[in-house]
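Exercise 4. Each item below gives a protein and its sequence. For each, produce the structure-token representation.

Item: TetR/AcrR family transcriptional regulator (Amycolatopsis panacis).
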Amino acid sequence: MSANGSGRKRGAASTTRRELVENELYEHATRLFAERGFAGTSLQDIADALGITRPALYHYVKSKDELLAKLVTEVTSGPLDELNALAAQHADPVDTLRRIVAVLVGRRATQPERFRLLIRSEAELPAELTEAYDTDRRAVLKTIAGVIDDGVHAGRFRPVDARVAALGVLGMCNWVAWWFHPGGRDTAEGVTEQLADMAVGALQRPGEAPGETGPAAVIKQLRADLDHLERLLDR
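Answer:
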């Protein structure tokens, strides 16, 4: 084997080991922050939990603020990048909304402790981190509302206030972090599918929803359209 080949293998192994240690570091930090609070947890506590010395810990993170920033960024920016990629495809709004729910529920179901930590630590976040968190949170809401608005204009969703509907979808997905327990009676896949059905079902026009057809459904939709038009004219 060439020297270059050996070097690449060593580099890949080093990267993999670093990722494993960082993931374990995030898990221990999340648990300690949740148990003792951000202010009550020291880097030495985290190093002890990880089984390394404090100087060795500095190889991965320089301060608690940096560690908290990484956790916050992972919880907020990660989903935002995925949602923006989905919205940029300009696919069918119904399918896009389903996939958005899948992303959000998947994140909350697999990393519930990190999301709960973020919510509980909002008051302790440094000003710069709070601003970044608020910006990402507003961007997530805007992306979901944009998809719903596209669905309304395409005739796939009922005429609703897109922002209010987006808040409802987001709240439903975020709450998973509090009640879903891996290994319990429900699977992440089953929960994701059901919540996606609920999100879409709540917004679909009567003619598209199962069991809602015929003249009564048409009249109901016309009334909803007129109500929506009146709200737009009153703005």
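Check: The chain has three domains: 1-62, 80-204, 206-235.
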